[in-house]
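Here is the promised in-class demo. Please do not try to memorize the tokens; focus on the logic of going from shape to residues.
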């Protein structure tokens, strides 16, 4: 028998970033997420969260831990777009680094493409 848990949701996925201002602009203006939290902590840091309107899970665009690195990460984050082709076209037109086309492998894999944020972190979008 496994451990008993009290976890009731996946709250936040953390992406360590170097330039929080640039990343907030990208995630809000380019990807269409909303900024949910922006607070100072530790006397010199900011905790910033973005997310999809009316959903509980957020992405924290946070400074790295001491000695930690930023950029070039496979985040494991998967976003969903109802009209994946239109969203892909919007991102391409906005100059976002996206795969050249939406991949269609067939069931059970949904249509999908990958995108890279300005620091080279990779996210997947599925439809």
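The designed amino acids, position by position:
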């Amino acid at each position: 028998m496994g451990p008993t848990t009290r976890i009731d949701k996946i709250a936040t996925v953390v992406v360590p970033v170097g330039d929080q201002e640039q990343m907030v602009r990208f995630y809000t203006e380019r990807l269409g997420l909303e900024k949910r939290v922006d607070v100072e902590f530790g006397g010199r840091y900011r905790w910033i969260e973005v997310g999809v309107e009316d959903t509980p899970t957020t992405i924290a665009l946070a400074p790295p831990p001491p000695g930690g690195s930023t950029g070039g990460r496979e985040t494991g984050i998967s976003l969903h777009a109802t009209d994946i082709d239109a969203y892909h076209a919007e991102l391409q037109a906005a100059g976002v680094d996206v795969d050249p086309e939406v991949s269609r492998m067939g069931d059970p894999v949904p249509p999908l493409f990958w995108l890279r944020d300005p620091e080279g972190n990779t996210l997947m979008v599925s439809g």
